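Narrative of accomplishments. A recurring question from our advisory board has been how the design workflow behaves on a single, concrete structure rather than in aggregate. To address it, we present the structure tokens for one chain from the evaluation set, followed by the sequence designed for it. No filtering or post-editing was applied between the two.
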């Protein structure tokens, strides 16, 4: 099941064009973690995707936790960019608790 995409608007308030990088932390709950796959969800395994086009995509997979991925190479000065992020939940999980992760976006 894909959890509906959530979005945020990113604004370049700097004085030069920016490249935006993203990174997600491991989905954890206590001592439990969910693996991340760039191709499919599974038992205790999620899939995470992002898009700058729309909630429906096209989407790009996040390949690994704590690894930067390029969201876009060109956000002009004073320009806005809508970022959509979605998660495909595990097919089953050994835990019934709530898991959490952090999406970090940085500009270069």
């Amino acid at each position: 099941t894909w959890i509906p995409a959530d979005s945020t608007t990113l604004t370049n308030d700097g004085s030069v064009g920016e490249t935006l990088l993203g990174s997600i932390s491991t989905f954890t709950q206590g001592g439990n973690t969910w693996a991340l796959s760039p191709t499919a969800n599974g038992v205790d395994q999620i899939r995470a995707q992002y898009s700058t086009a729309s909630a429906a995509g096209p989407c790009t997979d996040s390949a690994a936790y704590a690894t930067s991925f390029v969201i876009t190479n060109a956000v002009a000065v004073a320009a806005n960019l809508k970022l959509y992020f979605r998660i495909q939940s595990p097919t089953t999980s050994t835990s019934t608790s709530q898991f959490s992760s952090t999406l970090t976006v940085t500009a270069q």
